[in-house]
Design brief:
By secondary structure, the protein is an alpha/beta fold. Strands 1, 2, 3, 4, 5, 6, 17 and 18 form an eight-stranded mixed sheet that branches. An eight-stranded mixed sheet has the order 22-23-25-24-26-27-28-29, with helices on both faces. Bound molecules: 3-acetylpyridine adenine dinucleotide. 3-acetylpyridine adenine dinucleotide (N01) binds at residues 62-64, 151, 157-159, 172, 190-196, 198, 215-216, 336, 357, 385-388, 441, 500, 505.
Amino acid sequence: MRPDQGVVMTSANDVDVVVAGAGFSGLYLVHRLREAGFSFRVLESGGDVGGTWYWNRYPGARCDIPTTDYTYSWDPELDREWTWSEKYATQPEILSYAQHVAKKHDMYPHITFNTRVKDAQWDDSTRKWTVRTETGEAITCRHYVMATGCLSVPKDPDIPGTENFAGGVYVTGRWPHEGVDFTGRRVAVIGTGSSGIQSIPLIAEQASQVTVFQRTPNFSVPAFNGPVSEDRKAPLLADRDAYRESAKWTRGGVPLPPSEVSALAVTPEQRREMFEAGWKRGELFSILGIFMDQSTNREANDLVSEMIREKIRATVKDPVTAELLCPKTYPFGTKRPCLDTNYFDTYNKPHVRLVDLNTSPIRTITSDGVTFGDETVQFDDIVYATGFDAMTGAIVSVDITGRNGTTLKKKWEHGPLQYLGLMSTEFPNFFMITGPGSPSVLSNMMVSIEQHVDWVTDTLVHMRDNGLDMIEPTDTAEAGWVRHGAEFADISLMKDTNSWYMGANVPGKPRVMLPYLGGVDGYRRACNEVVERGYLGFSMTGPGGKVCNDGVIRSVQPDVFIVLDMMSQMGLPPMESMTPEGAREFSNASGAMRPPGPEVGEMVDGTLPGADGSPLEYRLYRPATKGPHPVVVYFHGGGWVIGSHVSDEPMVRDLCVRSGAMFVSVNYRHAPEARFPAAAEDGYAALTWVNDHITELGGIPGKIAVAGWSAGGNVAAVAAQLARDNNGPALCGQLLLTPVTDGTKEYPSLSLNGEGYILTKSLMDWFWDNYADRKDRSHPKASPLKAASLAGLPPTTVVTAQFDPLRDEGNAYAEALREAGVKVTHIQAGGHIHTSISMVGVILSGEKHREKMAESIRGFFA
Ligand code: N01
């Protein structure tokens, strides 16, 4: 403990830490910083603690995470001494909880109220920030923490004529403390987000006339509010520590088992039953997670969205109003859904009217009313429930100037560049609590706040203990995290919806996904790992020296990471520890659990003669379009040892549908029963047979190409060389997905990516040992890269994956083909592994690469 522990420093103008904001983040910072013995000041623009709950006093304001979860976990006594009156507590009750905590822990003396931070400036020579307030104070500090909340700066309503109105004007996020009595008044409410949806039913109870101006209808589900249920209290009472701990390792920060059921895999009756059960709970996270695929699969989401619309139609009596209230232009959950009490029912009241701004836009606000569409209606009051400049608004509203005069506003012009949502390069010792790039608004804020405050305070303690006084993320780490966030957005349904998550509600704001979509659990792991790996991606300096362990915390695609993580938790035995038969059984069993891939027009099974005359099975995949079709002869992966003509079926179907080409997927003899060159020669024999029978098969003569994945890519590449050397068939192209091209050499990627990415170096060695003797591996039929010449080969598309042990030999083949004058398209799949691009319906980030592959195939036949 340090001597200054507990010393109140409200007037000090040089402290270790300045905190802006005394909401739940700021209060927990007071606790942690004081406990750790730092000197600090907390500056708060409001007149009391509470943040959001201080400002948002509109009627009906309450939390929409069950209140027992929306509480601090750091003081266990609070769970015993505070009793919530309702499942979802009202704003006054939550505010008094914040005040209770602040009083109980004697926090008030640390906070300077009614003091807004105006600007903050970093000085490289003193390695300190100077924070200036609107009240004229200047405070220097080593560290500056913004705990200013994510939804704290109301957005400009951007409606013409707002300044004209002479009646009562109310903004939900800045509600008068004395409350507003709407009795007998004619009220206009603009906006139907959570604030509008919570306040409209209560305003309608008082007002003589309510007109709601709606731009976009919102999905809202009934809260079924009431006393806290016994089943909510029970786990907390039984073992509160375990309950609190489990919340930290869930996706949203509220303990809830993740769904393992696809909305598409159940009968309509089962789906309805599950939906009704989720609906009855009256909890956002439960309705958002009824089905495992509703947030990633549009079809699954449509089923849930429609069931919610049915509920709206069943509640609202006037069918025209009901239809207007049904959200139809975006998937459920991609805009923040709401929790309500009697919202839709309010529209059944005769004095409540809904105006659709899409057909009747507001032309202007006049001194006593609103002109919209072709009418003007008089109002006594206007309520703006038009939302916030979310996540970045409060941060950039302070002039923050970092190193070399860089302002945060300028740096974030095109979106918030940050590392872990905690810090930003060029802004040393500047921290954000629940900033953009962290899960924050997508989670139970209390859990996310505590995690951030803990991370920041632990880091400050670590630095103090090690004689370090300056911390800053590296460019590499920041770029990596921003890329990772964008990759998550890419595979979500959220990116196409105009929501405040995407900054789309504020005109001119850059359109980027603001919160991190990897969940509270995934995010916490990343933050913990950063620390465990020596503050990976941070540079720290001070009298104690300099530490910089540069790097990127998440470089594989997010969905690839999730799959790898699941597989590592399953503790599967390495395939090379099995017999070839065992490995085949294992691979067939896991193959049977995959999604099947899209429907094709027709599938036909048959056999064709292999190189030694014995029959080889094939499966033909015909597109649903009118034939004849161009033909791709496809060879499966599996290291020449495992797999079959149907083992890559989901991808083959996918490529068939995307490219419009017919695929003939051929089996070939497997090792070790049939070693080199059996597979290679079967590949060529199959190609020749398909070409000879192309018309009967429904193909177009002369329109033939080869394709293959992994060892199948090797078979395809060899078949293409044999076709060139044996006068045919003439190929239109070859598509090689993460192919084996050279068994003679250990490329760096073999060891660099040799562990942890499904195909390991040791498995690859096992495949080669089963397939070919060392002396044979330099033969071009085993290693097509070793061919005397690659000239004269057909246009080629090579796909390589960043974290594939075979990456470098794939790259080398693409390069060598190009040098030999072959037309090459090289798709380099960043963040992918050997197997991920083929995982149709599982790894969504592979889709764009398969689309490019299909485009290449179409190009072969153009
Ligand atoms: O704001 P919003 P909010 N003309 O942005 C409309 C949290 N919160 O204050 O959708 C006409 O959601 C806008 O239309 P559109 C919660 O995270 C939590 O309601 O942009 N209309 C929309 O309908 C929530 O998501 C609780 O087309 C205009 C509405 O105004 C977040 O805060 C309670 C307009 C704004 O909705 C923000 O909620 C309340 C214009 N020019 C809030 N501009 C809890 O229960 C905007 N709109 C914990």
